[in-house]
Structure formats: structure tokens, C-alpha cells
């Protein structure tokens, strides 16, 4: 893994309203072809929730929920950037690695997850 930046990493949405700092190793990135990921282009970077700090406090974030009440797809209500997902087992969250500042995603090693076929069936839009 070629990490272009030092920890902690800073992530932001396109308009800058939401900024997040993550102090974790930048590895094990996963792209998924499920019904939501294929549309948003979310590039999963799963870390412990404790490693994540919201730099822009008390800002409005929009949340899309499907399947489970505890699984939130969080995105900026102004520019629409999908930046964070919550509700993973073991107090983990997933950041969108495409939002990391100063990192060219083309330099990152990315695995694929066949969410389209592997995930439990749900309402498929
Ligand atoms: Zn924004």
C-alpha cells in the first residue's frame, strides 16, 4: 500500500461543509457493486469509530437508511457527497476513501466485494 500522506488523514465533502479526521492505517479498501455502492461510488475504508473525529461539529448531515434502522448512509446535504457509513459490527464505521484530501485514489490498492450477490436479500431499487 502506497500511502501518500501521513496520519491522521483528513476527509472532506466537495463543498467543505463536512470534514473528518481519521487516525488509522490507510489499507484494505474495498469497492462494492451492491445497489447503493454502485450508484454512489463509495470506496469503503473501514476503521474503528474511535479513530474518527468530526472536525466540523454541529453541522447538518443527511442520512439515508434502508434495510436496518442502525445502518446510516451519511452524506452532505449541500453537495451530496457520500462520506460516511455507520452501523457496522464491532463499533466500526466506513469512510469513503475518495474523500481523503491529498490522496490520488488511483494510487491506492483496492479490493472488490461482490455485494450484489453476497449480501442478504433486501429491497433492491
Ligand atoms: Zn458538502
UniProtKB/TrEMBL annotation:
<protein>
    <recommendedName>
        <fullName>CENP-V/GFA domain-containing protein</fullName>
    </recommendedName>
</protein>
<feature type="domain" description="CENP-V/GFA">
    <location>
        <begin position="9"/>
        <end position="114"/>
    </location>
</feature>
<comment type="similarity">
    <text>Belongs to the Gfa family.</text>
</comment>
<dbReference type="GO" id="GO:0016846">
    <property type="term" value="F:carbon-sulfur lyase activity"/>
</dbReference>
<keyword id="KW-0862">Zinc</keyword>
<keyword id="KW-0479">Metal-binding</keyword>
<dbReference type="GO" id="GO:0046872">
    <property type="term" value="F:metal ion binding"/>
</dbReference>
<dbReference type="Pfam" id="PF04828">
    <property type="entry name" value="GFA"/>
</dbReference>
<dbReference type="InterPro" id="IPR052355">
    <property type="entry name" value="CENP-V-like"/>
</dbReference>
<dbReference type="InterPro" id="IPR006913">
    <property type="entry name" value="CENP-V/GFA"/>
</dbReference>
<dbReference type="InterPro" id="IPR011057">
    <property type="entry name" value="Mss4-like_sf"/>
</dbReference>
Amino acid at each position: 500500500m502506497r500511502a501518500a500522506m501521513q496520519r491522521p488523514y483528513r476527509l472532506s465533502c466537495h463543498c467543505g461543509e463536512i470534514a473528518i479526521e481519521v487516525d488509522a492505517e490507510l489499507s484494505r479498501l474495498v469497492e462494492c457493486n451492491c445497489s447503493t455502492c454502485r450508484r454512489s461510488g463509495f470506496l469503503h475504508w473501514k476503521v474503528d469509530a474511535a479513530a474518527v473525529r468530526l472536525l466540523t461539529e454541529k453541522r447538518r448531515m443527511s442520512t439515508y437508511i434502508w434495510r436496518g434502522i442502525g445502518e446510516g448512509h451519511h452524506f452532505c446535504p449541500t453537495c451530496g457527497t457520500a462520506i460516511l457509513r455507520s452501523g457496522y459490527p464491532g463499533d466500526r464505521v466506513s469512510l469513503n476513501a475518495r474523500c481523503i484530501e491529498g490522496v490520488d485514489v488511483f494510487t491506492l490498492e483496492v479490493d472488490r466485494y461482490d455485494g450484489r450477490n453476497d449480501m442478504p436479500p433486501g429491497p433492491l431499487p
